[in-house]
Amino acid sequence: MSFSTGLKCRECGTTYPADARYSCDFCFGPLEVEYDLEAARGVVTRASIEAGPNSIWRYGALLPDPGVEPVDLGAGWTPLRRATRLAEVLGVRELWLKDDTRNPTGSFKDRVVSVALSSARRLGFTTAACASTGNLATSVAAHAAAIGWPSVTIIPSDLEKSKIAMAAIFGGTVLGVEGNYDDVNRLCIELVAEHEDWAFANINLRPYYAEGSKTLAFEIAEQLGWRTPDQVVVPVASGSQLTKVAKGFREFIELGLVDGAAPTLFGAQASGCSPIATAFADGVDVVTPQRPNTIARSLAIGNPADGPYVLDELRARGGDCGSVPDEEILECIGLLARTEGIFAETAGGVTIASLRQLVERGSIDRDKSIVAIISGHGLKTLDAVVDSATVSSTISPSLADAEAALRFHQLVAAS
Ligand SMILES: *Cc1c(COP(=O)(O)O)cnc(C)c1O
Ligand SMILES: [Zn+2]
Prior knowledge:
The protein is α/β, with parallel strands linked by helices.
């Protein structure tokens, strides 16, 4: 059972029932799901959570009501791994990687889609839709396929081929828009008004969708043995993930489920699309939109919906936001792979490069614990690395050639 009580405006506090709405009638502020944490206290316990399934739904009591049963491909409960080799390279004492490459469709988006489509089905919608930079489209199409729903996913037409294929393979309708994500999003807001029975996961279902990201915080705390980490590095596109990771830690603390204080949060952006890092560095509250130009397509949102809330969360506890060039993103995809055996998409490169930048800048404390969220699998952005990750040597099928190549690569001593 869920302890959610309904929706509440983030700006003016007006409350609404848990129905199909996403902005406030009075001030147009975004709505957020509310819970009766008083009632949950003592009922939602470490033991009750540990008895749940190995998916995000072990935290179902602190997620929106999914109706009869959740729409579930098994999102979440991904590994949290101690990264000693990467920590040594970066010169930090205690580093953990939340490996969200290991989700059903290879990105953290499965968490938010499982929650959004569960609420959509409870509310009587029959078609799944979204505006996407790629990963969301894939996840929406897969979850819709699994429940036999039609899907309409809308993406920039020039996305990576691998991302388009991953969205299209599930048989839904994929619309490629000649424009960037911000154009896609504008179009989808118009479509929402025309098609009231379509559940756009990240638009008219956004209050429910966003809650899925809290499970990252819940899992990190539980996997650390019911304690909070000191510092968390989060990739930022619209900013939904970062703001809800913060909410997740707050709810666990309020329920008395974890030891430790709320962690300091750090954002990670690509320099080619860093409107939030820029606003943070300038010390302003208004996020000025930017035209994205980066290989980190999954984070390429130039006009982030949750920008001001991200700035609040970063400033609340002395955080900061990284901004890293494409060369460093590629370099850090390789660094993560070579040191820890994890192949991440470009967003993962942004997270690791930002972590390194923020440690060097002194914003991240080397001696306190750090968790970095690796949010998507490298197979999604294979195009980014195919030219640099190649065979070491091409040889004829002869022993002499093989031995010569092994000597060249210093795997055997030169004779
Ligand atoms: C969507 C996405 C994010 C974060 O997106 P927000 O809009 O900020 O919630 C991070 N990493 C990957 C790989 C994504 O696809
Ligand atoms: Zn309001």
